[in-house]
Structure formats: C-alpha cells, structure tokens
Amino acid sequence: MYHFDEIADRVSEKSRKWDRKIIENNFGLVSEDFIPMWIADMDFKMPPELEQAFHAAISRGVLGYTYCYEEFYEAVIKWQSDMHHVTVEKEWVTLSYGTVSTIHYVIQAFCKSGDCVLMNTPVYDPFDSAAEKQEVRRIYNSLKLVEGRYYIDFETLRSQLEKYKPKVYLFCSPHNPSGRIWSLEEMTEVARLCKEHNTILIADEVHGEHIHYGEFHSALKLNEEYENLILVTSPNKGFNLGGLKTSYSIIPNEHIRNRFRKKLEQNSITSPNVFGIIGIITAYKKCRPWLAEVNRYIRGNYEFFQSYIEKNIPKLQVMKMESSYLAWVDIKKTGLTSGEITNLLALKAGVLVENGDHFVKDGEGYIRVNLGTQKYRVLEALKRMEEILNRN
Fold first, then answer.
1. Which pLDDT belongs to residue 270?
2. Which domain CATH number covers 70?
3. What was the pLDDT predicted at 225?
4. I need a surface site. Which of 139, 325, 340, 341 has the fewest CB within 10 A?
5. What's the number of domains the chain is made of?
6. CA distances, 171 to each of 1, 75, 175, 187, 256 (Å)
7. What is the pLDDT of residue 71?
C-alpha cells in the first residue's frame, strides 16, 4: 500500500539534510553522490492522508489565524489512550511551536540564572543548548554502559539531586541517541526522585512512536508520581513533520501548567500554525496504518544494517536500536575519534553521519546513523563504509 522505496525530491524541498551548502559547511567538500544519514529527518514521502488534508486546506483559499479547536484535543486524547494506554484530560494539553522551543520556554518559566538543569549524557544536543542559552547551569548524569546497553546511574543521580537541587530534569524517553527504551521501574524511580527533590521532570517522548523491541512506557503511566511532570511530544518524528514546527505538552499539575502557559503568553505563543494543527489531527486520526508500515520498514533497515556490520565491518558495533530510526554505533575499535571517522566517511566515501561528540558528553567513540531512508541507500552506505574502514 505504501511505497517507502520511492524517492522523494529532498533537494527541491530545500531540505537541510540534503542541501549541499549546509552539508559542506558541516563536512567539507563531499562527492556528488553523497548519502546524508545525519539529521534526524526521514526520506519517506508523507502519508497520502496528510497530503490530501493539506491540499484540502490550500483549496479553501485562505490561511488566516486559527485556534485550538475541539478536534485537536480529541485527536490527542484518543491517540495517547490508544497508542500509549494513558488517560489525558483536555485541560492538560497545550499546543506550542516545536519541542525544542518548548524546552526553552520551560526553562524560562521555572529557572533563573544560576539555577541548575539536569540531563543524562550522551543526549540530544538541543537539551544542553537550551539550558546554556537561558544561562542556567548544566549538570550531567553519565549513563552507564553495561554489555552494550545504557542504564541510569541512580546512585549518582540521587547525589546530584541532593547536591545541586536542579529545578528541571530533561529526560529523553526513548533515549536519543541510543534508542534505549526505559522500563516502567526505571521511569518510576526517576519520577519518585524528582518528586522527592522538588525537581520538575520534563519527559521528551517525541521518539515514542517508533518502537521496535520492547514496550514503551509513557511518563503518564506513573499515576501519583507524575505531579511534577511536563510531557512534551509531537507527531513530528513519527510522521516526519518537523518542518511544521508544531508540538504540544501534557501537564497534569494545574500550578505548573498555568506557570508554563503564562510564559508562552509572554512570548506571544497564542495561536497555532494552520498546517501544524491539521497535521496533528490527520496523523493521529488517519495515519496509524502508515506508521505501522514505516516502522516495519525501518526495523528491516536496522536488522540489515546490524547484520551487515557484524559480518563485514567488525571494527564497528551497533547498539540495539530499541526505538527510533537512529543507530548508535561504537567505533572505538577503529582507533579513530568520532570526529576523525565522521570526516573520513564524509570526504572519502560521501557517507554523512553524526559525530557522537555532538551529543553533549560521553558520545566520543560513537557515531549516529540515520536509517530512516530507502534500503538501497543503506546498502550503498554500508558498502562504502566497509571499503574505507577495512582499508584503514
């Protein structure tokens, strides 16, 4: 029904991921046949239901101011119930302009200069830059690597909460860059510690729609433990709608919710993007079959990628990609740094991957590879990687 091998014209789209000038600013002069596997952006065409909904909006001929109408809340509530088995009240939901900008507003709302923000590392770099730009201190809780899988260092976490008294804990669930899915027991302990130390838990669940192995647990499953919770999410990763710059938060605590909304109002975040709200409603109401199929395709890409590397590029080791479409690859056996191998692959093979050192802290010795693309590109990238890395 869906054709994920079909090529979308990402160049005419003016995609950052595919733009040669942007690529050369980041990687240097690369070959004409480069394969971009860096920015977390899929190369698949959108679900046809979304395309139809956007065409219908354009055909009406007017793109004026809109508002958060009832259908939006109904779509979010039903999606969270059906997909993540949690109950959401309408008043908990607040629409905003993208998950990253929402994290900025959260820090503005609950922190002042000199306060601390806590995060696990390695982690998605905008977590760190959001804190830095708001002039708050960043406290890093390094994840423990045990038999090729990350675990939270709860002993150190408790000590950091007691010592630094962070106002906010930025928690990536599932984890980016590794794709690790946290267990319900881990989530409960995180929430309990945040509640005990009066720290607001910001659960970023944007990768929660691409689940491949294991069971994803939304932070909203924590019941009485979630009174300090701000959940931020969107369909942007699941359905590749990042360019719409639309997301929403779910905040059960009325005091926290009102304080957050006041900060949005101070920044004039008051009405939604016309296409953003249509995108959320349509993706959640009509595009579940597409999501199920794209997840099967991505999982197939990962299994092929992992198997190929195991057989043909023994210097690399792929961490199990429990979620997302981003493979976290250990490159330490190559004897190269993350920066060196990123440059080597880009300049000699035209394969563009993300430098693990970009993930705040503890990412040295890794690269992140975007598998949200056509399988033939994954195969071609692997052949080039094999040739370059086995030669060195």
1. 85
2. 3.40.640.10
3. 65
4. 340
5. 2
6. 36, 25, 8, 10, 17
7. 98
